[in-house]
Amino acid sequence: MDIRRSLSHHSGSRRSPAEVLRRLTAYVSPGTRPEDPVRELEDRVAGLLGKPKALFFPTGTMAQQAALRVHAERTGRWTFAAHPQTHLQVWENQGYSAVHGLRLHPMGDRHELMTLDDLKTAGEPLAAVVVELPQRDIGGLLPSFEDLAAQAKWARESGAAVHCDGARLWEAQTGYDASLAEISALFDTVYVSLYKALEGVRGAVLAGDDDTIAQAAVWRRRLGGAIVDAWPLAAAALMGLDDALPRMAEFKAHAQAIAAAINADGFAHTTPQVPVTPLFHVHLPLSRQDALRAAEDLLAHTGIRLFLYARSNPDPRRCSFEVNVGISGCEFTPDEVVELIKGLPSRV
Ligand SMILES: Cc1ncc(COP(=O)(O)O)c(C=O)c1O
Q: What does pLDDT average to over the chain?
C-alpha cells in the first residue's frame, strides 16, 4: 500500500529509501569514514543528556536489555520495578526474562502513572526502577518532575539503579520546565530512540557513566548489536537532531490543537484531554475490527495512514489509537484530522 501521508511518524514518503538517501547526502562527504557518523551521534547525544558516555544500539529493545542486565549484575539482584504497561512487558515478548532471566515487578495501576507509594510496596530488593517517559500505553502521561525526583531518590536509597525508557524523551522534555540534561541527571542510564519524533530510520542510544556503558557494550556484542557499519542509521538520526529536535514544542502545540479539535467535535475523544507531550490517544466509538477495516479503506483510497494499529477496549464497541505528532503529523490540520476520524464509520 502506498503511504503518501501519515499521522504517525512512520510516514511512507519520508521513509522511502530513495527519499532518505536523498536527504542523507548532506550528512556524508567524500572524507566521511564509516565510524564518523556513529561517533558524532554518540557524542552529541551524550552532550544533550549530560552523560559522560553514550553508545549506539540497533534497537531500543536491545539497549534496554543491556542496561538492565548491567544493573542486575552490578547489584546482584534480578528483579526490576516498572509500570504494568512498560514497553518491556507489553511489546517485547518479555525478552528481559527469556534472554536474561530477569523478573519484572509491576508497580501501580495499569491505567495510572506509577507513584512513589507504589514503589514503596516493592517489598524485595530491586536491581533497577524503570521509568518510561512519557508512559506511552496510557496516552503519554508524565509524572511531575518532583515525583520523578522522589522516585529516583527512593530507588537510589534502596540500592537500585534508575533507568529511563526515554524512547520519547525528546518529546517528553516539552512537558517539563527542565532541560534534557536536568531530566537525565535523575537517572543512571537513559535510552533514547532515533526513529520516533526524530524520524530517523531505526536505532537507539544508551547513555550513562563510562563504566556502565563499557559493560553495556559487552552485552551489545553478545546480543549481536555491535554492527560496525551503522552509519546510515546514525546519519539519519543526526538529520533528526537537526530537523526535528528543535521542533518538539511545536509538535506538542500541534498535538494539543488536534486533540482540542477532536474533543470539541465530540465524535471521538482523547486521553489525556490536553496532551502533555506530542503523543496522545484517540478513543473511537467503533469496534477494533471496524476501525482497522476503515483505516485500511482510507489508506487504499487516499494514501493517508491515520494510525498503525488500533487498541481493543473492555467495551467491544470501542477502541483507541495512538497519535504521535512529528514532522509528518504537522502536515495535517486539526480540522482535517477531525474529518478523517468522523469519516471512518462510512468506510467500514
Ligand atoms: C516506550 C518504548 N520503549 C522501547 C521501545 C523499543 O524500541 P525499538 O523499536 O527500537 O526496539 C519502544 C518502541 O516503540 C517504545 O515505544
A: 95
